[in-house]
Amino acid sequence: MTSNEQHPSDEANPLRSLTLDQLRRRTSMKWRTYPADVLPLWVAEMDVPLAAPVVRAVTEAMELGDTGYPVGTAYAEALAAFAGKRWGWDDLAVERTAIVPDVMLGVVEMLKLVTGPGDPVIVNPPVYPPFYEFVTHLDRRVVEAPLGADLRIDLGVLEEAFRRAVTGGERAAYLLCSPHNPTGTVHTADELAAVAALAERYGVRVVADEIHAPVVTAPGARFVPYLSVPGAERGLALMSASKGWNLAGLKAALALAGPGAAADLARMPEEVGHGPSHVGVLAHTAALRDGTAWLDAVLTGIDENRRLLTRLLAEHLPGVVHRPGEATYLAWLDCRPLDLGDDPADVFLRRGRVALSSGIPFGTGGAGHLRLNLATSPEVITEAVRRMAAAVD
Q1: How many Cα atoms sit within 13 Å of 338 on the Cβ side?
Q2: Beta strand 39-40 with 354-355: parallel, antiparallel or unpaired?
Q3: In which region does residue 131 sit, left (phi positive, over 0), alpha (psi from -120 to 50) or beta (all else)?
Q4: Omega of the bond leading into 126 within 30 degrees of 0 (cis)
Q5: Residues 7-11: contacts with CB within 8 Å, 24+ apart?
Q6: Residue 75 and residue 308 in contact, taking contact as beta carbons nearer than 8 Å
Q7: Is 138 helix (H, G, I), strand (E, B) or coil?
């Protein structure tokens, strides 16, 4: 596999392309949840213009009236080609994929295939809040296996969670966040192989949410697809171009099955494949096939912003603990030394007019923390930290 996710790009940094006035014309959740005087650095939307290949694909579809139902394997083929070039993963089997509406709805469908009502689903908190919301709404039981102090998977804790989960004879699943949201941790091949071995030992089915796979920014870090490691043959995974190319509003994702899970994926109801947007499929396909130069420019910008945030925090908020992640465009900040209580995001919103994601919904280890979205301009990040610092003076 390749050792670096990024490649040099001649494209200008998309994170520097739009002004605040332009961004405030947007009507999505990021820009309409809070009043106009609030800087929104919370939900995972990027402040970028779309990649030109995506714009062309969507525009051509509109001009043709090509707005029917999705069909075919072009999306999976584009992902397979991207995975081969980007991650050195040449074993993505198009015949073991299926389109789903989005990654989290795909997670729900995969959990339906391998667990039943009341069965346990293991997660690694602090972790993406919908892991709790969707799992409990599905009538499954969340079992926590917290990350270690180094924000990596603690294999001893995970094994104990697996053991407890299957003690009653229930079918158990492990919902793996890879790369990890909110910490930005990129799991290594050895860690994932160890996960696969534990899953096989205890009969736990792994469902990997790999939506942030294209967004690896740290030099030398590399994403490892779960289905590529030894022992993961019975695993299931979900991938999408959504996070890498800012396509959350163009719904489409792919479910992938290892060789030992092909029969499970084949049992997914046909109607699930009617949920994705055909235009979304076209957009995601174009992003994966033709949008890598744009992606590389964004990744360079995110890496620059992560280093900028580190400098700004050291200068203006030295009490905040920030361990820069290797992936995602999210920063996980430990604000407990500031004595702002369990929900520092609420303090910064009220006193500083900066919207950040509260750490509390991320589960165990989230209290006293917050998540900050780095996918914006350096000027916005600088102003946000200035406001945050003024809020605690």
Answers
A1: 28
A2: parallel
A3: alpha
A4: yes
A5: 7/292, 7/296, 8/296, 9/293, 9/294, 9/296, 9/297, 9/300, 10/293, 11/293, 11/294, 11/296, 11/297
A6: no
A7: coil
- Number of neighbouring beta carbons within 10 Å of residue 36: 9
- CB distance 246 to 45 below 8 Å: yes
> What crossing angle do the helices spanning 130-137 and 103-114 adopt, rounded to 10°?
50
CA atoms within 13 A on the CB side of 218: 16
The tokens for 211 are 């939506």
Phi, psi of 44, rounded to the nearest 5 degrees: -80, 70
DSSP string, 64-106: HT--S---SSHHHHHHHHHHHHHH------GGGEEEESSHHHH
Bond prior to 179 in cis (omega within 30° of 0)? yes
**In order along the chain (393 residues), what is the average pLDDT of each group of 10 residues?**
52 95 97 97 98 98 97 97 97 97 98 98 98 98 98 98 95 98 98 98 98 95 97 98 98 98 97 96 98 98 98 98 97 98 98 98 98 98 98 94
Look-up: residue for tokens 């860690």?
191
Instruction: Give 169: exposed, middle or buried? Use CB within 10 Å, 0-12, 13-18, 19+.
Output: exposed
Global pTM value: 0.96
Residue 109 backbone dihedrals phi, psi, to 5 degrees: -65, -40
31 CB neighbour count, 10 Å cutoff: 17
Question: Which pair of structure tokens corresponds to residue 90?
Answer: 């040449």
